Amino acid sequence: MDIRKLEQMGIEQGFSHVVLLDCDTIELKPEVRQMCASGSCHKYDKCWSCPPGCGSLEECEARVRQYKNGIIVQTVGELEDALDGEGMMETEARHKNYFSEFEKKLREIYPDMLAIGAGCCTKCKVCTYPDAPCRFPKQAFSSMEAYGMLVTQVCQANGLKYYYGDCTISYTSCYLLE
């Protein structure tokens, strides 16, 4: 599919920005996975979409290298001030909703795509990790960070801003398409 059509579809979905992703620019960094292990988001070793449940860095690398092209999607929100937690959560909720709805549309065109989100998977209220397999392995998604991606680097390598100034926040995800 033409990138202009994908951009249009993404903007119509509600994303602020949609750009082509050259999958060869994706670098999976051990230090990003180490940040996950430090427990700052409290999801490490708690679900299938976060390390170590989402696989080793080598396993994630093998999945990513199956693709050449994708798109990066981003939702940018305005905040009242730098501590506007409510604004941050509202922007995150909008982004996750756009991401989920757009994934359904893209799966019709790219059934074997790899969706990589912002934050951990939210398909199930309670994850089966580690006691049982993932209920929805074809629909579950990990975050860019869980895969070891430094989001700012992926954006920069593909001509997309990440920082839009004071009192803004951006949530970024990607779909590896073909």
* Strand content range: 15-25%
Order of helices and strands: HEHHEHEEHE
Integer-rounded radius of gyration: 16 Å
Molecular shape: globular
> What low-confidence regions span 5 or more consecutive residues with pLDDT below 50?
none
The residue fraction in helices comes out at 25-40%
N/C terminus separation: 10 Å
- Decide which structural class fits the backbone: alpha+beta
Number of helices: 5
Q: Work out the number of β strands.
A: 5
Query: How are strands sequenced across the largest beta sheet?
Result: 1-2-5-3-4
Largest β-sheet summary: 5 strands, mixed
Mean of pLDDT: 94
InterPro entries: DUF2284_metal-binding (IPR019271)
Protein name: DUF2284 domain-containing protein
Pfam families: DUF2284
Your description of this structure?
With 178 residues, the chain is α+β, with helices and mostly antiparallel strands. It is built from five helices and five strands.
List keywords for this structure.
single chain; about 180 residues; alpha+beta; globular
Topology:
Blueprint (H helix, E strand, L loop, with lengths): L2 H11 L3 E6 L7 H8 L19 H8 L4 E10 L6 H25 L4 E4 L24 E2 L7 H7 L10 E9 L2
Parallel strand pairs: 3-4
Antiparallel strand pairs: 1-2, 2-5, 3-5
Summed up, what is this model?
It contains five helices and five strands, in the order H-E-H-H-E-H-E-E-H-E. It has helices spanning 3-13, 30-37, 57-64, 85-109, 151-157; strands at 17-22, 69-78, 114-117, 142-143, 168-176. The chain is globular, with a radius of gyration of 16 Å.
